[in-house]
Amino acid sequence: MTERAARAGGQPTLEEVAAAAGVSRGTVSRVVNNSPQVSRQAREAVLRAIDELGYVPNRAARTLVTRRTDSVALVISESEERLFEDPYFARIVRAVNVAVADTGRQLLLAMVRSGDERGRLENFLTGQHVDGVLMLSLHGSPSRRWGGR
Q1: Please, which contacts does 47-56 make with residues 24 or more away whose CB atoms are closer than 8 Å?
Q2: DSSP single-letter state for residue 70
Q3: Would you tell me how many other CB atoms lie within 10 Å of the CB of residue 10?
Q4: What are the residues whose beta carbons fall under 8 Å from the beta carbon of 80, sequence distance 6 or more?
Q5: Residue 50 is inside which H or E element, if any?
Q6: Structure pTM?
Q7: What domains does the chain contain, in order, with CATH numbers?
Q8: What average pLDDT values come out for the chain (149 residues) when binned by 10 residues?
């Protein structure tokens, strides 16, 4: 069994792409991150190796380096009935989705109804899993609903 097949998921690594392209790991990283500091020949070799090996960048590793998740959470603190029956919410979610997508980020939708759900979501949001949070509620101050002042 090859080293690649032995790993969970069998995904090729940055090192394997570098070896296949005949370049350094750093060059592969620069190509993956669209750095202009790579020669045309090296870029083509890396892109060919990525295609041949089926390499997909590791989002968790990239997040550790860049300290960005490229995602934004939209937190809606309303009942499901109100959220899905009131056309206002659909328009807001669509508009936020378009605005976030235009920045190249991913939108995460979170719905919160109870204190337990708020606590779990607060732990998730403060754990650096998103780059930003938008809160939407028509009833009362969001900070009051989240225990703020």
Answers
A1: 48/21, 49/17, 49/18, 49/20, 49/21, 50/17, 52/20, 53/12, 53/16, 53/17, 53/20, 54/11, 54/12, 55/11, 55/12, 55/13, 55/14, 55/16, 55/17, 56/11
A2: S
A3: 11
A4: 111, 113
A5: helix 40-53
A6: 0.56
A7: 3-57 (1.10.260.40), 71-145 (3.40.50.2300)
A8: 48 92 93 88 95 84 70 87 83 92 89 84 84 78 51
